[in-house]
Amino acid sequence: MNERAPLTRFEGLLARFSACRILVVGDIMLDEYVFGTVGRISPEAPVPVVVVDRDERVPGGAANVALNLAGLGAGVTIAGLTGDDAPGRDVARILSRRGIGVSSIVADPDRPTTVKTRVIAHGQQIVRVDRERKAEPSRKTRESLLRRILGLVAKVDGVVFSDYRKGTLTGDLVREVIAAARRGKRFVAVDPKRLDFSYYGGCTVITPNKGEAQGALGGRELPTNQDVWKGGRELLARSRSEAVLITRGEEGMTLVERGRKGGFHIPALARQVFDVTGAGDTVIGTLAACLAAGATMREAAVLSNVAAGVVVGEVGTSPITAEKLLHAVRSFERDRGSSGGGGRNAASPGSRPRPGGG
Question: What is the pTM of this model?
Answer without folding.
Answer: 0.87
